[in-house]
Amino acid sequence: MKTGILSLFLFLGSLASAAEPARKPNIVFILADDLGYGDVGCYGQAKIKTPNIDRLAKDGMRFTHAYAGSTVCAPSRCALMTGLHTGHCRTRGNGGGGSPRSNVPLAPGDLCVAEILKKAGYATALVGKWGLGEENSTGIPTKKGFDHFFGYLNQHHAHNYYPDYLIRNETREPIPQNVQHESVENVAAKPTVYTPDLFLKDSLAFVEANKAKPFFLYFASTLPHANNEKTRHDKDGNEVPSEEPYANENWPMQEKKKAAMITRLDRDIGTLLAKLDELDLAKDTIVIFTSDNGPHREGGNDPAFFASSGPFRGIKRAMTDGGIRVPFIVRWPAAVKPGTTSEHVTAFWDFLPTVADLLGQSVPGKTDGLSILPTLTGKGEQTTHEFLYWEFHEGGTKQAVRHKNWKAIRLAPGAKLELYDVVADPGEAKNVAAEHPEVVAKIEAYLRTARTESKEFPITLPKAAPKKK
Questions:
Q1: Are residues 278 and 400 in the same domain?
Q2: Whole-model pTM above 0.90?
Q3: In this structure, are 437 and 350 located in the same domain?
Q4: Do residues 272 and 405 both lie within one domain?
Q5: Are 202 and 272 members of one domain?
Q6: CB under 8 Å to 448, separation ≥6 — which residues?
Q7: How confident is residue 22, by pLDDT bands cut at 50, 70 and 90?
Q8: Is 196 within the bounds of a domain?
Q9: I need a surface site. Which of 43, 342, 446, 455 has the fewest CB within 10 A?
Q10: Of 357, 377, 397, which marks where a domain is finished?
């Protein structure tokens, strides 16, 4: 009799377990700052050591035609968070509409990917750099779906790796060990607390605290962005506590420090991955690694020294692929085949619809993105973009379009389009617009509908010449 009752309980328990929905996968999105396509080993870097990022690629899928949201940070991050390209998203440039040291903030009606995940039961955190809303604005992370925020709101504040405060949620948190380190007069001081170390510690604590439920960690490191103000002061803004493991290399000091920043980022990523292993979360955690735009020269370094743009032309602020094509790696042991490479053309605005698809939802609003879940899992049919669009407003408005293997660039409103075949000519060396007028006409048609007007980021077309009488 007892045996029969025990068997019944075991049977009922197995039915209950089978009825329980599978836990949603955790998501860890790692965003480097000003890291070039060619700055990591798995994308061809030969001098800088990035073993943990390379291991992510070995264990997951490496994309070779992935694009950032923009060629500078704030609009790129806006595209990532909102699923809208820079012809539609709110923050289309660094600055604009106010102080040059602040950005146009996200508005209450701007949907952020963290809001979707929070509504689906995820614990949500942003650690690092935001750039989409200043203090007391409508765009601060805690108003855009993040339960927890620790880092920099202002991108110029984020230039400083030794600040005397950071923002925790909505409050300034002092770092008393650091002297004020933002003014030119004080950059030679010797502060002690390096913010990437604080970001790693905070991220590890968030993962530990939320290990029992699904979580979204947006780990937006400031590495290897330069301290621009320090560069103007002493020609070396690659701010890092140590030049190791490159101290003995026969390289310029700026190159040693840039390489050290990248390897330090790689080390932090390795520590974060080890925490997932320790907590037995790796299998059910999607880890995404990428960069917000192409490499910089703002630390006094030369991007050509490490071939930081890979095979592409241009760097940060360029509309050629060196400014916007980025490393993009996805590891998800439960679903993504390890050691794979994808040539699927994707961009930052695909992240939000991919998350919605992962949750079994439709996108609750407008998006320019497409889910890449079929590419990641090998299940279902992958839809492709008719075209990708960018606009950039520093030093005059520029526009770019990627359509199939074609890349078109307009360097000023009303200027003729340049056209490149970025498959046959990844360095965008030969303008073939004159040879393909039909392609140019098609892209001109895309440009007529690619954007909505923005009072902060207008595009003013040149006045037409008066008609001759």
A1: no
A2: yes
A3: no
A4: no
A5: yes
A6: none
A7: confident
A8: yes
A9: 455
A10: 377
Instruction: Output the six-digit token pair for 161.
Output: 């790796």
- For residue 395, what pLDDT band results from cuts at 50, 70 and 90? confident
169: left (phi over 0), alpha (psi -120 to 50) or beta: left
- If you average pLDDT over residues 427-456, what whole number do you get? 97
In a domain, 457, yes or no: no
User: Is 36 among the domain residues?
Assistant: yes
Confidence label for 462 from pLDDT (cuts 50, 70 and 90): confident
Dihedral angle of Cα 37, 42, 45, 49, to the nearest 10 degrees: 120
Which residue range is the domain that position 430 belongs to?
Answer: 388-449
Rounded Cα–Cα distance for residues 277 and 331 (Å) = 13
- For 152, the enclosing helix (H) or strand (E) is strand 148-152
3-state SS class at 57: helix
Nearest Cα residue to 33 out of 135, 128, 163, 105: 128
Same domain, 263 and 412: no
Residue ending a domain, choose from 354, 377, 400: 377
Handedness of CA 394, 226, 49, 199 (dihedral sign): negative
pLDDT in tens, 158-209: 999 999 999 999 999 999 988 755 555 555 557 789 999 999 999 999 999 9
Residues 313 and 354 placed together within one structural domain of the fold: yes
